[in-house]
Amino acid sequence: MKRFIGILSCMLIAVGVFAAEPQTTEEVDKAIVEQLKLLNKKMTGIEKKLDKVLNKNGVMAAGVAANGGVVGQTISISQPAGFRGPSKADLSHIKFPKNPTKENLKKYVEEIRIASKRQKSFSDNDKQIEMYTKVGHKNLDILLESFGKAKKWNDGQFHLQRAIGKLITKDDKELIIRNLSKNRSLINYVVRYGWEKDVKQTLIDRLRDTPDLPQTWIVAVAALKEPKTYPDLQEYFIVSRNRAQIYQYIKDLPGLKLDNAVDEAWNIVSGGKNNWEKKQMAVIAAGYGHVDALFFLLDAKVPQNSHMSSPDFNAILAKKVDKSGSITEIKEWLIKNRKNIVFDKKAGKYMLTEKAKK
């Protein structure tokens, strides 16, 4: 016990819990008790904040990550050791009905959803997915109805989403289209089976009034290639928190001019404090002639292998700077001539001012 107390006190000293090293065993005991109370209080606060993050991301995972940038992709969620997974005790009393009917299957599904509310760690191997899947393809509507009630991962979103994915087929077109407005994660199957035109109005309506759509939703609207959707796509790009990805989906649409949208988005982001968001948008803005974005990236030293970075930024430097040489030489030249760099819209290049050229 003394050895344990000694080790623990050293650990607490190492992380700065003790202001000074206790001198006696009694002092150590008292200090440990007080500090453990404090640590427990802090951990409780952290756990509550983490729950909010998990639940917020759960909404995204159900609609974005599980369906998102790569259509048909399934993700596995892993959490640190010690997080609470499915409770066997909570689930053990739930039995599949011997004589299934719509009513007792709805009750069965609801019981699973309620029993999962204490869960904090989620995996594609969770028992609830198999339990939901037993409902079967012909009762897919029951799962979709239950998913519509779910607001968080532990409210059924995580497991129902995966069970639905296991059961759904191309033959469910009518059911998918009918539920798309309530269950936006079904957009995955709309894109997979090429039904974008069948749900065109729903796609456009939700694009206008929903700020956190699955990325696949934007893919679906872009697939329409209809100019009348362009203003809504541009507006969504401007207000989105994931502008870099949205930009990739819409930048090559025929006839779409993004200059004004990029200007507006950069004006919003450049004055903010979120450097991650600013770096993402700066790579785009630098490609459209924003000198301040160009030098923001140079000063920020965008990591060579960052997802927002180097290939795109280096391509801008190579194509849009009126200076020959290696990327390193171009960067050095820009920094050296910082006060005399302008963007010539006609030439489409960053270059020296006429005065600096003389």
What does this entry look like structurally?
The protein has 358 residues and is mainly alpha-helical. It contains 19 helices and two strands. It has a two-stranded antiparallel sheet. Strand 1 (341-344) and strand 2 form a beta hairpin. Helix 12 packs antiparallel against helix 13 (243-250) and helix 12 packs parallel to helix 14. Mean pLDDT is 80; it is low at 1-23, 54-83 and 304-309.
- Sketch the major β-sheet: 2 strands, antiparallel
| Radius of gyration, in angstroms, nearest whole number | 27 Å
| Shape summary | elongated
Strand content: under 5%
Total of DSSP H or I helical runs spanning 4+ residues: 19
Mean of residue pLDDT values: 80
From the N-terminal CA to the C-terminal CA, the straight-line distance is 80 Å
DSSP, total strands: 2
> What is the N-to-C succession of helices and strands?
HHHHHHHHHHHHHHHHHHEEH
Oligomer: single chain
Strand order across the largest sheet: 1-2
- Structural class, judged by helices and strands? mainly alpha
Low-confidence stretches: 1-23, 54-83, 304-309
Helix content: 55-70%
Task: Write the topology of this structure.
Elements: H1 2-14, H2 25-65, H3 88-92, H4 102-115, H5 127-133, H6 140-149, H7 157-167, H8 173-179, H9 187-192, H10 200-209, H11 215-224, H12 230-239, H13 243-250, H14 259-270, H15 275-286, H16 291-300, H17 310-320, H18 327-336, E1 341-344, E2 349-352, H19 354-357
Antiparallel strand pairs: 1-2
